[in-house]
Amino acid sequence: MYRTIPATAVALSLSFSAGAQESDQTEVEELRQRVQQLEERLDAQAAESAPTPDEATAEISTGSQDTKQPSGNAFNPAISLIIDAKYRDLELDPDAYQIGGFVPGGGHGDEDGHGHGAGPGERGFSLDETELSISGNIDPYWSGYFTAGVSDGEIDIEEAWIQNSGYFPGVIAKAGRFFSGIGYINEQHPHAWDFVDAPLVQQAFYGGNLGDDGLQLRYVAPTPLFLEFGVEVGSGTNFPGSERNQNGANAGAAFAHLGGDVGFSNSYRIGASYRQTEAAEREYDDEDSTGAEVENVFSDLKSKTWGVDFVWKWAPNGDPSTRNFKFQAEYFNRTEDGQLGYDLDDATETFAQEGVYSSDQSGWYAQAVYQFIPRWRVGVRYDLLDSGTIEYEPVTDGSISRDDLQLLREHKPERTTVMIDFASSEFARFRLQYAQDKARFDETDDQIVFQYIVSLGAHGAHRF
Amino acid sequence: MRMFVTCVLVIVATALPHTALAKIKAFACEPEWASLLSELGGKDISVYQATSPKQDPHRVEARPSLVARMRSADIIVCSGADLEIGWLPVLLQSAGNSKVQPGQPGYFMAAEWVERLDVPEKVDRSMGDVHPYGNPHVHLDPRRLAVIAGALAQRLEEIDPDHASTYKQRSASFQEKWSASIQRWETEATSLKGLRVVTYHRDSAYLVNWLGMALSSTIESKPGIPPSASHLAKLLEQLKAEPADLILRMAYNEPKAPAWLNERTGITLVELPYTVGGTKQAKDLFTLFDDTINRLLQATGR
To answer: How many independent structural domains does chain A possess?
Structure first.
């Protein structure tokens, strides 16, 4: 480009001397020589300086240039929409669903069944939560991510955060609302799940994906094995915490991950996590031994959950396109200590019973998914929970019986699930799932679900 | 709690490497770039190859080992043009390494430096897994590789000025050997001009373009969509009407559909390395093209 300017200038000046005489001819010769020298010099300069990608492309370009003017849309973030619709055949009434032995998790699934939180969902055809995700770079330091679950009448902001990766080497800082890094599946959005619903332990302990408003710091160690540590602080308002009008952090979490390969075909990640939150006032509806409804309220309840998670992936020569296999398992143990007020009388605003409450409960799941030919996968999952021990003063001293806490009777909820799915591309998946659900106290539910889950627009890559 | 801390310390102790060496660490997304980095960097660079020649570079998992390696990398060299869109962005976000983020000197995408083929006028998912920035499989044209090598050598000088003179020397000697090799290959391969080929995916587009062959169709119905029975039937019809001379199968492609096509049409099936290590003979970039051209010549009996 730079040589065209003097060349054009010389050409112009040459063209003005149309009727050149002898003396002008020699002048022209001189000018031509000078132009040639200039061109050579510019060539030498260009060869020395580093070519930018655009220049190099232009050199061997034959018109692959984009001649359109960039519009304001050039900086638009990546937008994607997930549509998730199902047809369910549920033997038992989903409205009466309960995970026996466990205080019902909060989350956006248990009430109307539209969400992907707790419970098997609605019978028949239903459109479940549509997820809208928007992500992009904010500036050279920050990137942002937003996901909202949209269902009739409500928009539920699941994640909205900013993140810096690597300003301090190895440190990834995230702030805003995000899914907690505890466990393995918790950070996965429902559209990335291998089954239609969440594992039972996640439903019981968190009511779905556990999220929080707060800060997360991760540190990736500069080791050949993947080693990562994370800490989180947050408001802790989601179950098992509660809202509280207080400064400071109401919840904290810490986790560590170790990952690596075994040969080219196998990869694994092991994790351990711990989370602590407090519920200032957390109510739930129960039934007493006569079947009458009672409203109970936890207060000053410290909830501590620790867990371990493991995932193993196999793909022949590391290529998952044709066949691949994935195994994952997680175990959680939760202890809660605090006060429980039993049977709130709305008129007098007093409890029939009050006393110290403490519980020690656990649960785990293991699942395996195998892709046997391109686009087709089968999976099997087993959930088992243990209601463990629940101690409540009024029960211990005989004021009320253990059966007056109907929801918290001893139980080992269990569920077995099998599924087969077909992905017409990486953006669309069709799944058929059958589960035998023994989460309820006395009944077994047969659940058949057919689901499609598709994404429109930009689709971010999934984590391991 | 104490147990937790002890466990963590044990894990850290086992995971810590030997003392780190002073040489720069390169993360190569695919084997061809690992090979190029070795040519240009020699002993001054420690190269980590993220994928094997048997892996489809489109479908790679962002596994923890890759995150760990990216964490410590001084430079990443990948094809770019969205070839690694399924896994590279996750690695970049999870690794906590600002040196290799887009826009930084440590971020080197080969396809940005050369003119790309197959740039679509419009993109739509109904077209399959199209690459909006054009065909990213740029390494299979040695002339483009020369341009990329030149740019990469300069980038290495930029991020590792202590060894700048060595990179210059190695680059100059590579370019000399390389242009001599290109001339030799072009002479050897003149008889391949005009041959019509069928490939599994359009990953051979640059090779075909360089050698003057013509890509008649792909076995895939659309990019990223494995062929259905009906598509294969249509392909069969098409080839009966207008036969092709060769079926190309890259080392990482699935073998069944190409073999089936070869059986039904009688068109010679050639297996090509596609990248360094794809076949035993393709040990480096030079032998990659030696072997590719040899196999093509053998298959056409010339």
So the answer is: 2
Mutate to test the interface with A, among B18, B58, B71 (most CBs of A within 10 A): B71
Strand-pair partners of A453: A84, A429
| Domain coordinates in residue numbering, chain B | 21-118+126-184, 190-299
Task: Look up the pTM and report it.
Answer: 0.84
Query: Is pLDDT of A134 > 70?
Result: yes
Q: Long-range contacts: B223-228, Cβ < 8 Å, 24+?
A: B223/B127, B223/B128, B223/B129, B223/B130, B223/B131, B224/A425, B224/A426, B224/B58, B224/B128, B224/B129, B225/A424, B225/A425, B225/B128, B225/B129, B226/A374, B226/A375, B226/B254, B226/B257, B227/B257
The CATH number given to B190-299 is 3.40.50.1980
Q: What is the pLDDT of residues B146-170, one digit of tens each?
A: 999 999 999 999 999 999 999 999 9
Is A90 part of a structural domain of the chain?
A: yes
- Asked if B117 and B136 count as a contact pair (C-beta separation under 8 A), the reply is no
Q: Which residues of A touch B51 (CB under 8 A)?
A: 318
pLDDT for A43 equals 54
Interface mutation target, options A83, A182, A223, chain B, most CBs of B under 10 Å: A223
* Residue A172 included in any domain: yes
Measured N-to-C along each axis, helices A4-16 and A22-48 cross at an angle, to the nearest 10 degrees, of 170
Chain B 179-208, CB below 8 Å of chain A: which residues? none
Q: Could you report the per-residue pLDDT of A208-239, keeping only the tens digit for each?
A: 899 999 999 999 999 999 999 999 999 998 88
Which B residues, 104 through 133, put their C-beta within 8 Å of a C-beta on chain A? 112-116, 119, 125, 128-129
pLDDT for residue A41: 61
Q: Do B7 and A425 touch (CB under 8 A)?
A: no
Instruction: Among A50, A219, A464, select the one facing B61 at the smallest CB separation.
Output: A464
Rounded Cα gap, residues B76 and B56, in angstroms: 19
Q: CATH topology of B21-118+126-184 equal to that of B190-299?
A: yes
Set of chain B residues whose Cβ sits within 8 Å of the Cβ of A166: 95-99, 101
Set of chain A residues whose Cβ sits within 8 Å of the Cβ of B119: 64
Which CATH architecture fits B21-118+126-184?
3-Layer(aba) Sandwich (3.40)
Asked whether residue A257 is assigned to any structural domain, the reply reads yes
CA distance A219 to chain B (A): 8
With an 8 Å Cβ cutoff, are A463 and B89 in contact?
no
